[in-house]
Amino acid sequence: MQRQVDLTPFNTLRLPALARHFVQADSRQQLLAVIAQQQGAEGPLLLLGGGSNLVLSRDVEGLCLRINSRGISVERSAEGLATQCVRVTAEAGEPWHQFVSHCLDQGWYGLENLALIPGTVGAAPIQNIGAYGVEVKQYIYQVEVWDREQGALRRLSNAQCQFGYRDSLFKRVAQDRYLIVSVSFDLPTLFTPQLAYGGLAAAVAEASAEAGVGVSVGMDVESGLKGLPSARQVFDTVVAIRQQKLPDPSQLANAGSFFKNPVIPVMQFEQLQKIFPAIVGYPDTDGIKLAAGWLIDQAGWKGVRHGAVGVHAQQALVLINYGGATAAELLRLAGAIQADIQSRFGVVLEVEPRIL
Ligand code: FAD
Ligand code: EPU
Q1: How far is the CA of 269 from the centre of ligand 2 (A)?
Q2: Contacts of 262 by beta carbon, 8 Å cutoff, 6+ apart
Q3: Catalytic site residue from 135, 144, 166, 184
Q4: Would residue 166 show up in a list of annotated catalytic residues for this protein?
């Protein structure tokens, strides 16, 4: 246990904050020991994975527990497991991208489109991470948690986690009630490419052509996958697109998308479309999901810099700390963007990372 630890290196926005107490749990045993010891203790507890979805706006008055527990196990037959699937369980502190890469190496598929998302396995269910047409909820079988209310380990089924777009039980009523200890995924051992996301199929075909590998994307998936891209090609293409669009937090401090893509009623979308014919939106179960990046971009914010903070020049959804920024400066910029988007388009942008 350390005291007065500077959390700047532990969050990808590189915001300064002090943790009164700080401890790193490097194994499942350590994690369970620390959390059991904390049971009933006074003061707030901050659970920290990779710190890639956090805005630290103040010091942590209690304990910051950094989760580094590692370990991956596999079951080839288990209750409720479909044929040609494996059940893979990873400890919460496994780095997400390395986990995806490991699964690919083992021939356990499904997570390729989620490559290069920063952070840990344990945080993946919190906001149901998603990218390139896949959400992690599609593969989660269950989430093992330490229930701080009951002081016991529990297993929550996929349905109990109440996953939604960038949302789950863990982001709502149960925020901070559960420490995610491990996550179990049911992954197919036969690969089916998921290429419906705008531009991904074309990017895979282009990358494959450049590499001299013949691939005709869009052929019938049922036809023995002949001619379709391999999981490795999809993984590599997703990595390449992300490297092009999104800033590497080790070079430019950021927390990925700062806002969620807002879902609006179809009628409102149709009205907006009359005024802004190029507006980008996709049908969603509850209406139309707008591309917030398009709105912010159109409003002229892309590349704008206010002192030490700014809007990324390649992706308007990403806010940057160019060095030495405070959370207040960042949140001021975010507030100005929200107000502008609301007055121009009548659309409310919700902040995606957790503000602490
Ligand atoms: P942290 O930031 O450490 O924590 C996030 C929240 O979860 C906090 O409230 C924390 O207390 C809590 N928490 C962490 N671990 C646990 C645990 N084991 N048990 C209980 N609570 C816990 N997200 C996407 O969905 N899609 C993307 O494409 C994407 N791209 C990104 C690109 C960049 C460059 C960056 C910087 C971020 C991106 N993100 C994306 C956001 C982020 O990577 C994810 O939300 C990720 O899952 C956060 O993991 P973490 O370990 O860093 O969580
Ligand atoms: N767009 C613009 N200008 C911009 C950014 C985007 O016009 O500056 C337009 C694009 O041209 C495209 C549309 O908006 O037509 C969507 O853009 P993109 O494919 O880049 O995705 P996004 O909606 O901006 C979401 C996620 C990302 C995820 C990508 C890929 C949210 C809030 N963000 O971004 O997640 O990686 O899709 O699936 O849903 C994150 O959560 O941190 C994150 C990076």
Answers
A1: 18
A2: 289, 290, 292, 347, 348, 349, 350
A3: 166
A4: yes
* Ligand number nearest to the C-alpha of 175: 1
In the numeric block, the tokens 């990873």 are attached to 90
C-alpha to C-alpha distance for 17 and 21, rounded to whole angstroms: 12
Alpha helices in the chain (DSSP H): 28-38, 96-106, 200-210, 231-245, 266-275, 292-298, 327-345
- Cα 256 to middle of ligand 2, angstroms: 10
Q: What does each of the 356 residues of the chain score in pLDDT, given as a tens digit?
A: 899 999 999 999 999 999 999 999 999 999 999 999 888 777 789 999 999 999 999 999 999 999 999 999 999 999 899 999 999 999 999 999 999 999 999 999 999 999 999 999 999 999 999 999 999 999 999 999 999 999 999 999 999 999 999 999 999 877 789 999 999 999 999 999 999 998 899 999 888 777 766 555 554 443 333 468 999 999 999 999 999 999 999 999 999 999 999 999 999 999 999 999 999 999 998 899 999 999 999 999 999 999 999 999 999 999 999 999 999 999 999 999 999 999 999 999 999 999 99
Q: If you measure from the C-alpha of residue 130 to the centroid of ligand 1, how many angstroms do you get, rounded to a whole number?
A: 11
Q: Specify whether 352 is catalytic.
A: yes
If one residue of 34, 38, 47, 57 were mutated to test the ligand 1 pocket, choosing by the most ligand atoms within 8 A of its CB, it would be 47
Q: Which atom of ligand 1 is nearest to the CA of 132?
A: 28
Of the listed ligands, the closest to the CA of 282 is: 2
Angle formed by the axes of helices 231-245 and 96-106, nearest 10°: 160
